[in-house]
Amino acid sequence: MLFTLQNIGVHEGLDAMTVKKVHLANNLSLMCIGAASILFIFTLTYNVPLEAKVFLCFIGPVLSIIPTLNYFRYYRIAQIAFCCLALLIITSMSVTLGKSFHFQYVLLPYLGLPFVMFEDEIGIKKIIFSLFGILLFIYLEWHFCNFDPLITLPEDGPKANQFLTDILIFGIVFLLFFFFINENKSYIKKLQRKQEQLVDKNYELEHFTYICSHNLSEPLRTASSFLEFVKKEIKDSSKKLDIYFNYIHEEIERMDQMILSLLSFSKLSKAFDFKVTDLNTTLSDIKIELKEVIAEKNVVFNYEYLPSIYAEPQLIKKLFKHLISNAIKYQKQDALPFITIHFKENPNNWEFVVVDNGIGIKEDNQHKIFSMFTRLHLDSEYDGIGVGLSFCKKIIEIHGGQIWVESKVNEGSKFHFSIKKHLPVQ
Ligand code: ADP
What we know:
Blueprint: H1 2-6, H2 16-45, H3 50-63, H4 65-71, H5 75-97, H6 107-110, H7 113-117, H8 124-146, H9 162-233, H10 239-268, E1 275-278, H11 279-289, H12 291-297, E2 300-303, E3 308-311, H13 313-329, E4 338-345, E5 349-355, H14 388-398, E6 403-408, E7 412-420
Parallel strand pairs: 2-4
Antiparallel strand pairs: 1-3, 4-5, 5-7, 6-7
Helix pairs in contact: 2-3, 2-5, 3-5, 4-5, 5-8, 9-10, 11-13, 13-14
The chain binds adenosine-5'-diphosphate.
């Protein structure tokens, strides 16, 4: 029953953070409704003034607004409403019952409430709501010095049992403290568990890709060899048949390349050897490796003295090589490739841009190109298998950064990426 009530408004697909807040708002509202009901029954047995009974009668229905708002998925409004109502109820109870009931001390654990409710937001709401709590506490102390309680409880009633009332109020205060601390601890534990599961799943997935691609290449090679046998057996093969054979052969080769790419993709996140990497050396090595195509297409490079960054040297080389190769490949017919590399140092990361004067990418397609095997052109236009940029994205993720593109058709593309300065994700 309690489990069902705390889950009012929770639905599949809701993120862990919101679920936690929905639980918190529902639990606290239900706790307050329960406490108000018990107090109400308590007032029935004593000769308590009618105003107190009416006030307690209203707390339940007013607080049930919170689970109702959660039910209709107005989570944000429910959180703000709960903080406001909590302040209102604590203040009215304190003003009504007077100093001797110590109800104002419930404002102390209340101070933690905005921090839990708005933990994913920057400062302002947390500070405003907590500040209200402190101001009300100060106001109440002043109020008690200047005004009598709104209702005077009968001498034979709860007031006579001051010690018990004190224990009750301080019990509530400690309970709420404990509740907030526990809530945060269990959330952190849940997050840690989720992260561990994610690491395991990631490992499984990489292993699966590795096994799959490893096993797939075997039958492919066998098929390719048998195709050669068949070709030799058919002595008087027609021209048409030759074209078909070549076509099958090309497709097999293409598939083999794709499988090999999958295999190297799954190996990407394995052995990291992060060290200070001089990007000028990286660029010189790439230029040597690409010297033929650079000479053939008369590629012009333009970059200032590059920094040394903390990175995995082999992966960083792969990244720059892919981007430079694409900048050379995706060019207009007979155009002179002009490649510029800029960089900027930010407090936490390095930001690089590889600019080309190539064919550019339509805006609609710009988000697609970082996915595996996505190509925007036919093989007859530009060869490739659509893995280069997904490699780049993975490499950047390993370095705790981001990659994105700005491009205009026929004008060129700017591939931006950032690389974290410290503590890369390992
Ligand atoms: P591939 O080059 O093997 O096709 P990529 O993943 O490197 O695979 O690129 C995906 C697609 O993004 C390419 O098919 C191409 O259409 C587009 N693309 C990549 N780099 C550029 C570039 N510098 N200029 C224009 N288009 C590009």
